Amino acid sequence: MTKRTILDVDVRGKRVLVRVDYNVPVEYVDGDARITDDTRIRASLPTVQNLVKRGARVVLMSHLGRPKGKANPKLSLRPVADRLSYLMQKRVSFANDCIGSGAENSVNSLQDGDVLLLENLRFHPEEEKNDPSFSQQLARLGEVYVNDAFGTVHRAHASTEGVAHCMGERAIGFLIEKELHFLGEELKDPARPFVVILGGAKVSDKIRVIDRLLGKADAILIGGAMAYTFYLAQGKSVGKSLVEPDRVELAREALEKAAARGVDLLLPVDSYIVEEIDFENHQTSPGRYTRPEEEIPASWLGVDIGPATIAAMRKKIAGARTIFWNGPMGVFEIRGCDKGTFAVAEMVAENRDAVSIVGGGDSVKALHRSGLADRITFISTGGGASLEFLEGKPLPGVSVIPDKVEKEENQNAASSSAQGSNKALLPV
Ligand SMILES: Nc1ncnc2c1ncn2[C@@H]1O[C@H](COP(=O)(O)OP(=O)(O)O)[C@@H](O)[C@H]1O
Ligand SMILES: O=C(OP(=O)(O)O)[C@H](O)COP(=O)(O)O
């Protein structure tokens, strides 16, 4: 059964509250925010443009980063409104808050076909708590609820789940529809060997997924900060590397399970290490590679995989027939710590016999930086979301949208093909 989409809803003259994922990478140069990858904004355009064309009053809402429930000017969505306006060649207004009288006044002044972006939802702690009264305040801003935030469908937050229960009309947008369709088709019965590459910094979230992936993948290659929690589980020292001590037990269980099931769980055998890292100014102290199997000294931290690890990964990636990659291999934003990530991008791109899927905000940014994005089969806007989909878990942001009724399915088969341009592959 497929989900109701925006094509199943009459939107003309209605206030349509759309959850998008505009959690884009942002860097600050001389105090000014610069969006360094706008894939997620571009990916929302088919839905937003379709709603505008059909005379909806479009109210967009998103989070940006993890401000922990407090307003933080560095995580304002205002620069995103400017980029969206540029991409649409159309005025996009901005509300300084996502709830309250200011937001309601901004929404009420919209005309048919206008677009408004609300300020960062996560400036309110109630968003991530899925607080019912916060959901009701959001629901006052629209008659129709649309979820098109694929990157955030695995979160049961007020804007992705709670608010939908307060609104009569609900649907998914074209981005979620396309992602579910592609990932569903390709990952249902993946061509083997199926190789999953995992890295990045969201260790506590993503390490939980490994347990289920052990039943699906033939090999799991680990890099990024994720690797160091596994090192702890093996009793190795990790110095000052980013680790999640609460997840060491999970990592130990995953290692045991992988061995018992004969799944290749490949951990780095060497790392690029530094003594100091300044994320804000993109600098590190001079670094060096560890020798294979050398442990990380106490005052150092691992910030990339090393050449021996890259060589070991090359073999696995070259032989794969399906590749799923989420999470950079190191702090690729900083020169010197980017070699592992770009090497993996190259290896994935080089394997022309495999279906390759790369997902996640930062992974996709790295892929674009590598210049190899057009050699990847599918670029997903979701990292954690696509992993949870692969794991087979219900996604709260999708479950909350009703299924199509049969009559609608038949009607839309015709109207979707007529609207083919709205469903083009990601404009990346
Ligand atoms: N060894 C490491 N130590 C600290 N941060 C790391 C390390 N390796 C990768 N990262 C960081 O992980 C971040 C991306 O992680 P994550 O959000 O999990 O990926 P994605 O957005 O692709 O899902 C990047 O900003 C990168 O700098
Ligand atoms: O960037 C995101 O996920 P991703 O890093 O897994 O791609 C989404 O916007 C979700 O963000 P969250 O992991 O802070 O809930």
TrEMBL record:
State the encoding gene: PGK
GO MF terms held by the record = ADP binding; ATP binding; phosphoglycerate kinase activity
Localization recorded for this chain is:
Cytoplasm
Query: What quaternary arrangement does the UniProt entry report?
Result: Monomer.
Species of the source: Methylacidimicrobium tartarophylax
Where in the sequence does UniProt note compositional bias of the Low complexity kind?
411-428
> What positions does the entry give for ATP binding?
K206, G302, E333, G360, G361, D362, S363
Q: Which PROSITE patterns match?
A: PGLYCERATE_KINASE
Name the positions where (2R)-3-phosphoglycerate binds. R40, R122, R155
- Which Pfam families does this one have? PGK
Q: Which reaction does it catalyse?
A: (2R)-3-phosphoglycerate + ATP = (2R)-3-phospho-glyceroyl phosphate + ADP
The pathway is: Carbohydrate degradation; glycolysis; pyruvate from D-glyceraldehyde 3-phosphate: step 2/5
One GO cellular component term noted in the UniProt record for this chain:
cytosol
GO process annotations (BP)? gluconeogenesis; glycolytic process
UniProt keywords, alphabetically: ATP-binding, Cytoplasm, Glycolysis, Kinase, Nucleotide-binding, Transferase
User: For this protein, what is the EC number?
Assistant: 2.7.2.3
Residue ranges, annotated region (Disordered):
407-428
Q: Which domain of life is it from?
A: Bacteria
Residues where substrate binds: D21, Y22, N23, R40, H63, L64, G65, R66, R122, R155
Name the UniProt record assigns to this protein: Phosphoglycerate kinase
- Name the predominant localization: cytoplasm
